[in-house]
């Protein structure tokens, strides 16, 4: 009976540790995604706003809503792509580290 209690406590501790690491990795993904979104916003805003000022077609057809949509789409895509890649990379790194600990 006491053996089961110790096993349950250790499994709960391991579960808590895994949950804490998952939160840490997801936070790293959020930070990396936010940085990428800022860069993508600037990278999309400069040519979009410049083309609206310089090109007659863009001036006639791209209203402020369309400009905002172009910029926010680039930012959103960059955020989700980078955040996903960061979370997966850190999880993969942790997975391989855990595997090497088991083999040793």
How many H/I helical runs? 3
Oligomerization state of this entry?
Answer: single chain
- Ranges with pLDDT <50 over ≥5 residues? none
Average pLDDT, rounded to a whole number, is 86
**Share of helix, binned:** over 70%
* Rg, Å, rounded: 23 Å
What's the SSE pattern?
A: HHH
Residue share in β-strands: under 5%
Number of strands: 0
Distance between the termini: 31 Å
Largest sheet: none
Kindly describe this structure.
The protein has 104 residues and is an all-alpha fold. It is 95% helix and 0% strand. The protein contains 3 helices and no strands. Helix 1 runs antiparallel to helix 3. The longest helix has 53 residues. The model has no long low-confidence stretch (mean pLDDT 86).
Highlighted features:
104 residues; mainly alpha; 3 helices; rod-shaped
SSE topology:
Blueprint: H1 2-54, H2 56-61, H3 64-103
Short characterization:
This protein is an all-alpha fold and 104 residues long. It is 95% helix and 0% strand. The two termini are 31 Å apart.
